Batch of 2 targets.
Target 1
Amino acid sequence: MVLFRRLLGILALASAVFAQSGPVAIINVHVVDVVKGQVVPGQTVVLAGGKIAALGPVASTPIPAGAQRVPGDGRYLIPGLWDMHVHLRSDQAKPNTRIADENAATLDLFLPNGITGIREMGGDLADQIFQWREEIRTGKRSGPRILTAGRKLDNDPPAWAGSIGVKTPADAREGVRQMKQAGADFIKIYFRQTPVQVVRAVVEEAHRNNLKVTGHKPSNLSIQEFLETGIDGMEHAQYLVATDRADYDRMNAEFDRRRGKDWAADALEQQARLLAMQDDAEGTKVWKAMAGKQFWVTPTIHVSSQVMQDGTRNYDSDDRRRYIPPSIWASWDPKGFRKPIEGRALTLRKASQKRWDDVTVAANKAGVPMIVGTDCGSNNNYTMPGWSMVEEMEALVKVGLPPAEVLRMATVNPAKWRGELEREGTVDPGKVADLVLLRSNPLESITHTKEIEAVFQSGRYYPRSELDGMLQRAESKRNF
Ligand SMILES: [Zn+2]
């Protein structure tokens, strides 16, 4: 049976080469209006020229002659998903070994999971990623549309291989210009601690070059001061935890005085202090300010439990292992780069995590614009490219966000972030035909986004058999 399925997959892949790109009609489908969070039943959706050419009730929507007919009966059509926090990079534990081909192989894991676009957050493979982005854009390679930060901007020396080390505002401007020239779509910062002038310089130079900036909040800056730099957003829900600004600055000054001494503050003390200092009234003000500025937050909830837990779950017999290149799988070994934590560190981590979950929901309710990102890729333990998308969406629903909101965060909001809502991000006439056909209603359960019948990318139809063929190809390529 398995062999037969694989054979079908390979045949489907072979036929894909000759696939016609003429009109496609999805007939009698439930269209999911992600903006309203509603289902519109009994629709015919016609795709032509890479776009949604027509959409309307079955009885009154003509099917163009020669169109390929896709039965939509009982199925649900959503916009293509975007994973807005992906890493294509080498194993940080082996910084001298580049694993570019292995990362390229994982590009085949996104479309079969309904992901038509990814936002790549920087690593050591920038040059290759620019090339893959181009190959996918021009149809030479199948895979999700890629937006990339290129190389991250970080302290000097940087924490991650491939990042640009920055000490001064002048370095910051130079780094931004370098990434602009290389073709980066946005700027990612990863400063652990840096003068606020450096962040301001990044933001000013990026905006001058029409690039958005997102990333980590340096720990020496309060969230209020960070927001004032004019930065466009941030990654990871943990920075949504707000404290009184003066209290935060005092804590920082104290940490500065203690730095390098025997009584320096360690990571655990910092975590405990932040837990103790959380101020919800202040949070409400901060989140309102974020909402007013259209400050984008990618919560990345699922990954934090993946990479920093007790390491008891064993993935050796996980089904998806066969699709992941061994060098990437090895980078997830809990004995490697990210080790399990225990004792007081684990207790604190769990308490912190609960806060991050809670502030994600509170900030979302306050109107902070959010996008789904999974932080998948090398080094982030068992956060698997493609499959992590539904896991992150399930995690967001589990902490308390409505499925309709999570679906918006994965479709229409990424289009807003890209400034492309006019032409992408919803199932509406005139929009780019990036779509996913599901067997069940995702508004009832976000887990239904797993049940993928077909994917359409710029109008190109990938039936299930072809998606399986893609997975098959990933499996056959995984031995390097
Ligand atoms: Zn990341």
Target 2
Amino acid sequence: MSVNQLPEAFLTRLPAIVPEPCLSAVTASFERPPPTCFRVNTLNADIAQVLAELRGEGIDAAPVPWRRDSFVVADSARQALTRSAAFSRGRLYIQNLSSIFAAQALGAEPGEEVLDLAAAPGGKTLLLAAAMENRGRIAAVEAVKSRFFRLRNNIDLYGAAIVDCYLKDGRQVGRQVPERFDRVMLDAPCSSEARFYTADPASYKYWSEKKIREMQRKQKQLLHSALLALKPGGTLVYSTCSFAPEENELVLDRQLRKWGDQLQVVELQPPFGNCQPGLSEWRGKRLDARLERAVRILPGGAMEGFFLCVLKKLKSHFYSD
Ligand SMILES: C[S@@+](CC[C@H](N)C(=O)[O-])C[C@H]1O[C@@H](n2cnc3c(N)ncnc32)[C@H](O)[C@@H]1O
């Protein structure tokens, strides 16, 4: 399988998004299986004990320097990991490091009230519950029924006692509970471009620019809802696993212009390399300069391609002057 199997329009757009020196590595990533990483569920398991158990089952895990609960395994060990006792008992969660970093960037703390607005299957919700040491409350919202049940099963299996799951459209939440949450995670539904894999045509066969526009419409509405649900002084993470500027910077650009200085874009310092700042223009349109503080994680090593941006809501939206 070669990269030329991917949609031609997708490949044509990439050089305008990814800087030239990184382009061949990004393109090569579509031919590799996704890296295998996991996070030990510290809500119900001891890290050293899980590692010892895995070693006993012939699985070696390499530590991640920036996170004590997270590890990388060889591609060849993926199947053994999914068959391990620790996995079936909810003591480890298989999750890409970029996804882990996005949830970590929210900075959730014990005792807070947190909203996860697009939550299934729950990888980020579970990390947030662990960061909060099961103290406080997380509202996890998911709109698709089958995915909602998967979310609820994971919440139960992994012992995330502070999570309430809601089967509902996240676009309504901001109006229903305005300025309620200390932090909001919006890991938006997207075209999943960074998960394209040439050996799995299902990963890319539904892609089109029309689909991107459809996703963008929903992402804008979800972000609007997320911002309404956020308390003044609260923090929001917007993330996707897409390269498309329409699903990333352009979604944020609209809200940044609308909210003006009521919103701050928080500078992030990823503890790993191979990142790019958010784009400052797309197809001749200049974007809000604050978007350069967003982070584009390029695929490579154990990292998958990812986009994230951390926002802080400085004032109440009820009293804008
Ligand atoms: C990128 S996935 C979330 C992954 C999850 N955060 C995790 O780390 O496991 C986006 C999710 O949003 C859900 N979704 C789509 N439209 C939605 C809506 N209007 N409101 C809430 N969730 C929605 C999708 O079904 C999907 O489960």
